[in-house]
Amino acid sequence: MQIEPLIQGVVARSAHPYGCRASIKEQIDYVKQAPQIKQGPKRVLIIGASSGFGLAARIALTFGGAEADTIGVSFERGPSDKGVGSAGWYNNIYFKDEATHHGRTAINIVGDAFSNTVRTQVIEAIETYFEGEVDLVIYSLATGVRPNPDSEELWRSVIKPIGESVTGASIMLENDQWVESTLEPANENEADATIKVMGGGDWESWIDTLINAESLAEGCKTIAFSYMGPEVTHPIYLDGTLGRAKVDLHQTSHALNLKLANFNGGAYATVCKALVTKASVFIPTLSPYLIALYRVMKEKGTHERCIEQMQRLFTTKLYGQSKVPVDGERLIRIDDLELDPEAQQKVSELLEQMNAGNFKELGDYAGFKDEFMKLNGFNFADVDYAQDISLKALKRLKP
Ligand code: NAI
Asked: Distance between alpha carbon 1 and the CA centroid of its chain, in Å?
C-alpha cells in the first residue's frame, strides 16, 4: 500500500513511517552540529516523549552533547487493520533505533501516563536500566482528558476564553480555509477541569511517586513547558482556560522546587515559543498569529522549531551554568526571540491586515502547513512516497 496524507480539520489521520524516520534524522543532524550540551544529565525520564517538545528534548539530550540514556512515556497508536498508526508511534521506533546505534539506551513505554500501571513500569525501568535513579524528569504531556484518580470520572480540558467571548479565525489544514468563529467563555467547572488536565497536579504526582520510590538522583532537575505569548494571544491563551492551567503549573514548579532542594536539584516551568505541533494547531484562533510569527521570525533569521528551542534550553539555561537563569517569577524564558518587541510590532501589523483573502500571502501559511505535514512524516524530499509499504512489516516494528 501507499500511505497518503489524511487530514480532518486540523488533525492528521495518517502518518508516513519513513518520513517520521527522516524527521528524526534531520533533528539528530541539527543537534550534532549545534553548540553542545555541557555537564548534561545522563539518565532522563521524559513523560510525553513521542512528539513536539518532549521528542525534541529527547533527541537533544541523546545526540546534542549530553549522551543521555532515556526512558520515554507516550500514548500512541500502532498499525492495525483500521490504520497505519500515529506519527508518535514511529517516532518512538526510529528514535530508539538511532539511539541504540549510537550506543545509548532508549526505552519506550507506551500507555496512559496518568495510570498507575505506567508509573509502575517506569519505576521498574529506572531500576533495570538506570541503576534506580534519574537525573532529569521532563513533563511534556499535551492532552484533553485525565482520569480522576479517586473516581470513575474523566476530567476534560476545554480551550476557551474566560469572562468574555473571543472572535477570531482558525485555518483548517484539511482544505486551507480561513474559518471565523466566536468562542463563548468557559464556565467555572470547565476552567477547573482544564487545570486538572493541563495544570501542575499530575506533574507533582509523578515527582511524588518518584520521590517515594527513591528514584531521584542527587542534583535531579525537573521541567515542564508553558506558554505566555504576546498580548494579542492573551484572550485565547494566557487569560483563558489554558493560561489558568499554566499559572497552576508555574505555582507547582515552586512547590516542586522546594521538594527537589532536598536533592540539591530544582524544578522549573519553562516558557517556550509558539510552534506548530499536534497540540498547538488545535488551539482555535491561534493560527493567524502563528503564520504571522513564522513569517516575521524567518525574515529576521530568528525562527526556531522544537529542536532548536530544546538544544538552546539545555545549552544556555539548564546545564553548564553556575545558576539556572530565571525571570522575576522564577520561570525559564526561552520565548525571548518570539517576544522581541520589534518582531511583535511587525506581527501586529501583519495581523491587522490579514483576512480570508490574503492570509497565504501575508503570513507564512506554506511554512506552517509544511511543518504540520512533516510532523506526520510527509513532505520530505528524500522519501519515496510512491513506494509500496506492507502493513504486515509495519506491525512487526515494536517500540
Ligand atoms: P505534542 O502533542 O506534540 O506532544 C504531546 C505528548 O504527550 C506526546 O508524546 C503524546 O504521546 C503524549 N501524551 C498525551 N497524552 C498522554 C497520555 N495520557 N499518556 C502518555 N502520553 C501522553 O505537544 P507539544 O506541543 O509538544 O506540548 C507539550 C507541552 O508543551 C504542553 O504542555 C504544551 O502546552 C507546551 N507548549 C507547547 C507550545 C507549542 O506551541 N506547541 C508552546 C509552549 C508550550
From this structure: 31
Strands 7-8 and 11-12: antiparallel
Q: What's the fold here for domain 7-396?
A: Rossmann fold (3.40.50)
Closest residue CA from atom 26 of ligand 1:
52
Q: Name beta bridge partners: 305.
A: none
Cβ atoms of residues 245 and 292 within 8 Å: no
Res 149 pLDDT > 90 = no
State the DSSP H helix or E strand holding residue 320, giving kind and residue range, or none if neither.
none
- Give the amino acid at 217: A
Measured CA to CA in angstroms, residue 97 lies from 19, 24, 277, 283, 326 at distances of 15, 10, 23, 33, 36
Instruction: Report which ligand 1 atom has the smallest distance to the Cα of 224.
Output: 32
Helix (H, G, I), strand (E, B) or coil at 185: coil
Taking residues 230-235, report their average pLDDT.
96
Which of 81, 136, 147 lies closest to 113 in space, CA to CA? 147
- The full set of domain ranges for the chain reads 7-396
What is the dihedral sign for C-alpha 87, 93, 94, 95? positive
- Residue entry with cell 480532518: 8
Distance (Å, rounded) from C-alpha 40 to C-alpha 55? 17
Q: Give the residues surrounding ligand 1 with Cβ less than 6 Å away.
A: 48-54, 73-76, 88, 112-114, 140-143, 225-227, 272, 274-275, 277-280
In angstroms and rounded to an integer, the radius of gyration of the C-alpha atoms of the chain is 20
Q: CA of 18: how far to CAs of 26, 31, 64, 212, 278, in Å?
A: 12, 20, 23, 41, 19
SS3 assignment, position 254: helix
For 242-288, the pLDDT digits (tens) are 999 999 999 999 999 999 999 999 999 999 999 999 889 989 899 99
And the C-alpha cell for 235?
484572550
**Predicted TM-score (pTM) above 0.85:** yes
- Which residue has a Cα nearest atom 8 of ligand 1? 48
